[in-house]
Specification:
The complex is a heterodimer. Chain A is mostly helical. Helices cover about 85% and strands about 0% of the residues of chain A. In chain A, α1 packs antiparallel against α2 and α2 (about 30-55) packs antiparallel against α3 (about 60-85). Chain A is flat, with a radius of gyration of 16 Å. In chain B, about 75% of the residues lie in helices and about 0% in strands. The longest helix of chain B has about 30 residues, at about 65-95. Chain B is mainly alpha-helical. The chains are: A mainly alpha, B mainly alpha.
Chain lengths: ~90, ~120
């Protein structure tokens, strides 16, 4: 039963990442691409967690923690670049 | 057995919420509407997937699997509103307008002073 649920979750998250890529390519403004990248890293964390559940190791969770930290920092840097035009003043 | 049911339900709930959030990001017509989907639905979906991973780690007696998802959950629930707020402020600086209808305006009682 857990395998079936994992497969359904994999399919749903993959479809969600495809939708994010659609918005990333199409998005009419830079801010749309920024939120698309933000959602893309959140979905990447979800897929790494599901891989960790499937292979039953804790290494994938460390990778997910690093993706969470770097994704937040990159979103903040992107938003600051959109707002002010530079990142480090 | 009961933990398998709990883990499976949390996984499917979380994956469905993440899919709904990304569908909102792809389909809604306006930037400020598009910000709603990822910043609420996808965060809750990822939180429930992480809680499923924590329950799985606790049920299989491997604390290394149980501890890290809780840490990621706290970190994500703190940082997602911050990034959504920063992106909304950047969009306002870029003069992106919302297409949502304004509530009906009432007539002002007094005329504004003419200058």
């Amino acid at each position: 039963m857990l395998d079936i649920a994992l497969n359904v979750a994999f399919a749903a998250i993959t479809l969600a990442m495809v939708l994010n890529l659609y918005r990333l390519v199409k998005g009419p403004d830079l801010a749309d691409r920024a939120i698309s990248l933000d959602t893309l890293y959140v979905n990447a964390i979800a897929i790494v967690i599901l891989l960790g559940l499937r292979f039953h190791t804790g290494i994938f969770f460390e990778a997910a923690l690093i993706i969470a930290m770097l994704g937040f920092i990159s979103t903040v840097a992107f938003a600051k670049y959109l707002e002010r035009g530079n990142i480090i003043e | 057995m009961i933990t398998d049911v709990i883990i499976s339900a949390l996984l499917i709930f979380g994956a469905a919420l993440a899919l709904i959030g990304s569908l909102g990001l792809a389909k809604l017509p306006d930037f400020f509407m598009r910000l709603h989907g990822p910043s609420k639905a996808t965060t809750l979906g990822l939180g429930s997937i992480l809680i499923a991973a924590a329950v799985y780690g606790l049920s299989s007696d491997t604390l290394g699997i149980a501890a890290r998802p809780i840490l990621i959950t706290f970190f994500l629930f703190i940082t997602t509103p911050v990034s959504a707020h920063l992106l909304a402020r950047a969009a306002i600086r870029h003069r992106l307008y919302s297409q949502a209808e304004l509530p009906p305006q009432r007539e002002p009682k007094h005329e504004p002073p003419q200058r």
